[in-house]
Design a protein that fits this description.
This protein is 42% helix and 17% strand. The chain has six helices and seven strands; from the N terminus they run βαββββαββαααα.
Length: 205
């Protein structure tokens, strides 16, 4: 079995940005860059250490997940067959990073493994922050919907009766327009609290 032999390539400007979505590719390649897609298409094993950020779209305010390279302008390619000329022909590959002997500089596997580990740690931290943001947004939406129900429903519900239960009991006595509005709020609350992991929150509505 051939051992790994990693070399750094210089990438052309713009080739580290995310490639267009291709539904035919597996989920693991959903956010690959243009240089990664080009190399993999030609059978090369490439590693571009990266980190992720959430950005807000300047027009729609939609939260978008983006991927950026740790090393701007560089990526690593595994060449166990030392087929440098084949890789040079890949669109987006400019040149190899050269060592003191003017040949392509080979990087130890331990260096690549350390970069993989650093990328993994950064990714896990990003996913945790993303989860916290989504949970905060969900909680704020639940509080907003509860507030809407409080304004519509009669005062004086019992402390141990959830607002959703009170709404469901009182809904038949409401006017058709208000009834439709309450049903919509209940539906939204149910969808936000449907996860078994947060079901206890629904009991305190």
């Amino acid at each position: 079995m051939s051992r790994s032999r990693w070399y750094a390539i210089r990438t052309a400007p713009g080739y580290q940005r995310m490639a267009a979505v291709d539904e035919r590719l597996p989920e693991s390649r959903r956010m690959e860059s243009i240089i990664e897609r080009n190399c993999r298409k030609d059978g090369f094993d490439i590693f571009m250490p990266s980190f992720y950020k959430e950005l807000k779209h300047h027009r729609t305010n939609e939260i978008i997940e983006k991927r950026f390279p740790f090393l701007v302008g560089y990526a690593f390619v595994n060449l166990p067959r030392l087929n440098f000329e084949e890789l040079r022909r890949v669109d987006g590959v400019v040149c190899f990073l050269r060592g003191a002997n003017y040949g392509p500089l080979e990087f130890p596997s331990a260096t690549i493994e350390a970069l993989y580990f650093a990328e993994h740690e950064r990714r896990q931290a990003f996913l945790y922050e993303q989860h916290c943001r989504k949970e905060n947004e969900r909680h704020e939406q639940i509080q907003h919907l509860r507030g809407q129900l409080r304004k519509i429903l009669p005062k004086g519900r019992k402390a141990r009766v959830s607002m959703v239960d009170q709404a469901e009991r009182a809904i038949d006595s409401l006017s058709p327009q208000i009834k439709e509005r309450v049903q919509k709020i209940i539906s939204e609350l149910n969808s936000l609290t449907a996860d078994a992991a947060v079901e206890n929150l629904r009991q305190a509505v």
